[in-house]
């Protein structure tokens, strides 16, 4: 992404701003103050919990954010998981590489594993990539997430695309 590192951090760490661009959540709310920072989230009718800890000053000049998440709702396939975001400034001012990795345990036994492998995990991967591109449009072109969603639904000019985001890190 070609943007200011602190702007990227703010849009990803502020729950009200985060839920505007991330398709995977309809709302995110912090629960009090402290470290780790606890939060609740919703995706439609499914409620979940999480906790995050951010590291603002990495030795390489980037930032990192680690989290644990899950849902007590039996309707949620996801039981509990963890992940991280890395914000890595690129050499010669070529922008910021914004990476994520996450994994989770599923419910519903063998059926849950099949549904996850065939449907849920690919859908979450697509939604993550699409949302990151939506965030990129907001940061690089000042396209509000609500406008990029309308553009996606009407094939407008400023529509996000999951294809612009790598699903695996490039070779070293």
Could you describe the largest sheet, including whether it forms a barrel? 6 strands, antiparallel
Distance between the termini: 19 Å
- CATH class designation: Alpha Beta
Task: Tell me the number of helical segments per DSSP (H or I, 4 or more residues long).
Answer: 4
Average pLDDT? 88
Q: Note the beta-strand portion.
A: 25-35%
Radius of gyration: 16 Å
CATH topology (fold) name: Alpha-D-Glucose-1,6-Bisphosphate, Chain A, domain 4
Tally the beta strands: 6
Number of domains: 1
Low-confidence stretches: none
SSE order, one letter for each helix or strand: HHEEEEEEHH
Structural class: alpha+beta
Placed side by side, the strands forming the largest sheet appear as: 1-2-3-4-5-6
Q: Which overall shape is indicated by the principal axes computed on the Cα atoms?
A: globular
Which CATH-level-2 architecture? 2-Layer Sandwich
What does this 3D model show about the protein?
- This protein has 172 residues and is an alpha+beta fold.
- It has a single domain (5-164), classed as Alpha-D-Glucose-1,6-Bisphosphate, Chain A, domain 4 (2-Layer Sandwich).
- A six-stranded antiparallel sheet has the order 1-2-3-4-5-6.
- It has helices at 5-13, 15-21, 109-141, 145-154; strands at 27-30, 37-43, 46-55, 63-70, 78-89, 96-106.
- The chain starts with a helix and ends in an 18-residue tail after the last helix.
- The chain contains four helices and six strands, in the order H-H-E-E-E-E-E-E-H-H.
- It is globular.
